[in-house]
């Protein structure tokens, strides 16, 4: 029969193992959050830069490409952590993994929006989290939960609000802002149905509502401004551009 | 403890607990309907006014379908216990008030009275000790309506409808001055009423923008400003 | 807003606000009586058991004098609105339950049933939609009683009464096992019930102290341990 | 949102929500069994040791009857999702660990190992990514056992059984020194471990009282301490 | 505790508690008057300037009627205890300051000084240890005035009065530069002063709108811009 | 803004701000003395009772030295403004009340009355509109005293002084029953009074321990229990 | 505690506390100068551009007079402890950055670089571990500048200066695109950067108004945009 | 003249540098906290183990030695971080460094208490934070602040309470508990004087007061228990030991 001491020695090893893994995942999650946040700034930066003549791609598309390239780092980090989050461990450490994962989804969905103007599907997000050979389900590093997907996407609306407001001072900004507004309204509407089932989503929905109202107010201001003149908005933009650029 | 007494206590606790579950089910239904209607009405911010009647047509049947839930709840609640259980459905009921009043405003620009709201929600006077619409919840619904109308004033301008803000302004000022005459306690309702001032101010600024630029037909403006 | 409707709303709000004031006055009375009785009963911890009957004799009339307050409240509360207003007097009522049950225990060592408590507080069944004693409040009163009895067990030993803890132990264990059979929700009542364990444990330790030192008459101990 | 994706997400949430309901049903069963066994075992504090075997005989079948619930839960939980759902039954499971370990102690005075606990609760190793007994929950069960044993040490002396505290003391000290081997975070387990110290101290005091009154038969003690 | 001492303590506590009730009654009166005057003045945002004198004529008697409440309070408050009780009526008093200063601005466009405000509210210097108007409350009233004037600037343009914003702009800038010279602590007053910047900015934007469109008579603009 | 008026406002704000600084300096002194005395008195828990008189002798001069600070503050505070500034020194003053009452109890076992406390702190009746000891602060000091005495009861037993808990018990019960007769509002004082029950219970348990084991001289116990 | 250590710690705390007082004095000076300069510069919103040079001439000497305060602070702060104390003067320093950059803009329309700002504030590189201008504070100053320029754009149009908004627009867009280069945390700087977008938008609206009304002379515009 | 873009590029580099350093220090602080916490458990474990015949050292002394050996890891970590916290950087990142540092001081002072029964001086703590050659001030990795020292030590009282209560069930536990109580009372008294100057100390002092009262209550219980018998406490202990050990 084992002594109590040796039995508890085994427990200690198991508890230490768990705590160490938890720490590793917390640190990795911070790193993933940082890479994702930097990517989001990068996306804003490139997408807002004036299109240069001769560029084959729009600033949005080239932002999206560079952003996605950046985010491959995150995938690699998850691949390296695979042992710590595989199988039933994912759910054990979900609380440690989620913050970084949601920030990653925010960045990824922003890149997707810039290129396609649509919402990235959960399947597409899951596809970025496959093992090296990019093969189906059996190669999942971990399964994407509905909750992480929706909460990550929820944060996207805040970035879109910033993007829309910043665009307004640019040529063609009104069109961009209107389509972004439509997108954010769609997010708000579609996500409302999920609020009872997803914890914390309703808090994020009220941030989304705020963002939506901010875009609405900004678009309103532009409409009011142009309504005073009897010319189509695009023509007005051109006129102003002519005058201010001498 | 006397076994008979103990059994009695346990029975009472048990039946309350079962009742709670049954009411909860109805409340989930109620919340679902509320979400559906809010989802529909949310579109009013992005469609031209010509499409509004169709939108309202899609909301009205849902609103009517709440009658049967209210009836079910009124049958579940034991006599005299309205005030015991009402917290469970208060949120849902307040959003129904908002929906009914919003539909009315969009239909003919008038304010739905407390009696008419009760009727539209299919709440019967004979249920009054089991299910009713208290004044407080009616007023909460109206405040939500004003919050929503300040958003609508913004978006209708964006959609090129410059008369709507004037109509909204007159309507909201009427509600606002009504509220100032009520003797509200220092509670949530009072705090939400204080927030109405911001909505009124925002709507006034929209009317200002429209008037300054002479965007609305003359007549609309003068009607409004005579209030 | 329609002036008639506005007036109606204001009248309702106004009358509720006046009612609240009137009930508040009664609740202040109720709290005063509760303070007086608790003050009296507090002396039970420092007097010899022979003086207890006199002490109880001074409490009983006060307990009876609460009947008229309960009656007044029952007349103030509008039909069906018991659950709307009851939070205002819940604390007072729970301490009356405690007082009644403590008096009963000190008188003959028995547990006062829910029905008897209702009777002793002069609460009439016919008021049930305006004033009643809910199960929950009765149970809260019993928990307060157990809290107090663990203190009494301590003090009776100090006063040289070594049988009292044995009597208390049997009584409290009976209540405790009654509570374990109830299906309590995860609320304040459940949390207070969890705290009962500490009182039971404390009383067991006192019985231990007394037994170990052979301070109690043999018979008393064996009666207790057979439970 | 992509309609296909929307449907997919909704389906997943729907099935999770149904699963939750199904597990909840099992957990209610589990909690009921836990209440029954705790109710039985509570009697150990007031019966002579000769009656303990009968008491245990009434508990064992209930303990065994939990196997099928565990199996049902293990079939409900999807592969790898053990940690997702376990919060739902953690409380029940911890009290089963306590019951099993208490029964074992009362039977032969030994400590039930983690492996034996798992076996006694009918938990299969092959379910491990769906239903298992984690170390943490086993440890919680042991702490509850020590809490209960400090109470038993008190009551057994009251009932005239002076050997029991010595047996308990040796047993509890062994568990305590096991716990000192662990590196705990500042979590619930650590706080409960801190509270363990007071149980050990309390039991020491009883051993002290009993020893100094020379009430403990020499032989019983020496047999016990060789464990 | 010495019975005489105990009685003394209780008397003091009791009389404070009664005094609080009496002051509360007056404060309710005070709040009612405040609500009435704010209700009247709210109409200034929707009437032509020609009707303003009549409006002010309806407010002035209410303002005067506050004198007697102030006197009553000043008689209730014990000597030296002004600062003990003033929190009870601070909100009401600040809105009276606002009303008096708003009436003055609407009458002749000038700023009501602290001394004149005190006089208009009928506050006597000889009450100073029982009832007075502290500097802080006067300043709070002025900030509320500026908040309201930024709203009035908006609405007067809507009503076609393009000179009003220029008048308001000059008046508000004067108050603003006065505040910048005050040595305010880091408290609520300072925070509200920070918010004044937004009102100033808003008013400047209205003057911009009016100037850009050449809506105001030339003279009015140049008067303003020379400040 | 009228320059003269502006200057007036600024002067008043400036002088208040300077006064605050000056009072703050005194309050720092006051807090320092409070810390010194609490530091000394804290030793009472670890010294034999024979050394207590020396300890008290070291505290008394510090207590007297507070008189001059009180005088300074009373001269700084403008006439009638006691209630305006008192929050600044309330904490310090309450701990002085505690110190004075604790010294008195340790000296002769009696309770220091409100009048005597005022005298011992050197507070003059003629300052009453600038510096005084309100009832509320006196009562706070007494509650702190009871908190401290429950700790002293524990530690005096550890030091082998078994009579002290009996003395403390009688003293504390007297204060406790005094408090039950006071009409306290639902504020901090009421909440702290509720916490007194725990101190009383703890002291009762110590008296129980001492009585059960017959550790205190017979006479001491009987004196106590006759209260 | 080791007496030597106790004394050592006390000495260190004492000297830190004295240092804090000394720095505080300087910070008060610094805040006073900041208030003076902000007061002066506020006039830029209501004077014709021809008077601006005189205004700047009155600000520059005050700005220079801050050098000696910075020097004093740099001598007070111990080596390497810049980051320990900087919170004390951060607000003042940020407003100096704003003042210097605003003066520069008003003088020649250019952006003051970090290095030039440091020079203009008389901050020496050799003090860098005791007193420096961190990037973050420089950026805060620039954001305040943009806030102020959006106000200036409005008021210059009111004053009939239609060139200014165009100049401001080009300048602000350049700063804005600089900010987009940064990776900010979710801190105050990010929130203020978010608010910058609204200033840029406001200025755009003014440029739009002015351009479409063809008020801007061709030449002025082309000179400006070449910056 | 530099373009705004290139100027802000430099700012970006500086801000990124700062954020990265901050992250590094947060992670290091978590590691230091973990090592310190584990050391504290180790100290309890060894100090409470029964003394074995033939051991030259008491369990307390050998606990202290092993604990100190463990804590050398922390010193090495600080040495490695030296560049990130040297000079004026220490104060810039104090908020990130303090949590780990205070936990380290708690562990170190516990080890010191077990060996010497006294409070470790701030100088002794500082001495453990020297560069490789262990030389004076010029070699400091960073200067120890009064605040970190006092707040770290403040947490010690909680561990001492646990130690004292656990000891009580052992032979000689009363003596240990009494001396620990005296020590904790001394800490409480000495630290009270620092509360106005050290932020958060007064919150920790109320925890110390709770710990002190817990030890007082436990010691009280023992005194009450032994007072009933007319024999000296040590003799009683021996008697009980004789009886229970058969
Ligand atoms: Mn974001
Ligand atoms: Mn610790």
UniProtKB/TrEMBL annotation, chains B, C, D, E, F, G:
Which ranges form a coiled coil?
6-33
Carries keyword Ion transport?
A: no
Per UniProt, which keywords does this protein have?
Coiled coil, Cytoplasm, DNA-binding, Nucleus, RNA-binding
> What subcellular locations does the record give?
Cytoplasm; Nucleus
* GO MF: RNA binding; sequence-specific DNA binding; single-stranded DNA binding
Which GO biological process entries does UniProt record here?
RNA metabolic process
Which superkingdom does the taxonomy of this entry point to? Answer: Eukaryota
* Cellular-component GO terms for this entry: cytoplasm; nucleus
- UniProt-listed SUPFAM superfamilies: Translin
**Entry-linked InterPro entries:** Translin, Translin_C, Translin_fam, Translin_N, Translin_sf
Q: Which PANTHER family match?
A: TRANSLIN AND TRANSLIN ASSOCIATED PROTEIN X
Family under the similarity heading: Belongs to the translin family.
What is the official name of this protein in its record?
Answer: Translin
From which organism does this entry originate? Answer: Cylindrobasidium torrendii FP15055 ss-10
